[in-house]
Amino acid sequence: MAGRTDNSIVINAPMELVWDTTNDVSTWAVLFEEYAESEVLAVEGDTVRFRLTTRPDPDGKQWSWVSERTPDPESRTVTARRLDNALFQYMKIRWEYTTEPNGVRMRWIQEFTMKPSAPVDDSGAEQYLNRQTVKEMARIKSLVEAAAQAGADRGAQSEGNDSVQDRPTASEERARVFRVLLRAEIAEGKEKQFEETWREIGDVITGQPANLGQWLMRSHDEPGVYYIISDWTDEERFRAFERSEEHVGHRSKLQPFRTKGSMVTTDVVAQLTKAGTQ
């Protein structure tokens, strides 16, 4: 007998924000607690092929597999399946998004059959997937609703000049810097488009009151690899912008070019500059 799970949750956020955030596969390592890495392998029309790698379990074991998914913005549905099924004979997933009075209901339906060699049968897999799905949906709900609230707060600030924070002074910039280091792998042949799009987005980001500057660097040693440094006055205001609807839109513009990425956040604890330079 095949296994089947059916779970849903209502997210109090605009449909476009919910749709764009949850369908940006390149950011799933941030969106989902379970995944350590999400890598886009190919994009063919509306279909995305990608690899997911889980975080280590208590025994240090990690699982990795390739899937593909095809979103349909008109019907607000997504069909997906695993390509190298590992423990599954097959795994098919359907996502549905419907508008309700309190927000957007996101529903996941998973249909599968376990291989005889798998450590659990269909019933055991159902129990695990139900627990994990509820957990991940709650996390996604929290992150997307925070992004929606940050966008609403930014809109309210822009309507009242008295509440907009001024850019910090030069002395304040030197006293406290929250630095974000990004690594992005870009699909072959799309490097120029990526650079042009990043510059367009970068101008908007550096216009944020809390942003102190950004740098885009292309690796000499790794083809298609870029590094980005972005400095902020503090982590709180960086996180507010990171979760904002505006920044989700930025990420969606870069998604067609990126195949893989990672982020590290740091505090600058010392700075040495040559005399006469800034």
TrEMBL record:
GO terms for molecular function: monooxygenase activity. It comes from the Bacteria. The keyword Oxidoreductase applies. Residues 151-171 are annotated as: Disordered. Gene3D superfamilies: 3.30.530.20, 3.30.70.100. Residues 178-268 form the ABM domain. Signal peptide: none annotated. Keywords: Monooxygenase, Oxidoreductase. Residues 158-168 have a biased composition (Polar residues). InterPro entries: ABM_dom (IPR007138), Dimeric_a/b-barrel (IPR011008), Polyketide_cyclase/dehydratase (IPR019587), START-like_dom_sf (IPR023393). This is Antibiotic biosynthesis monooxygenase.
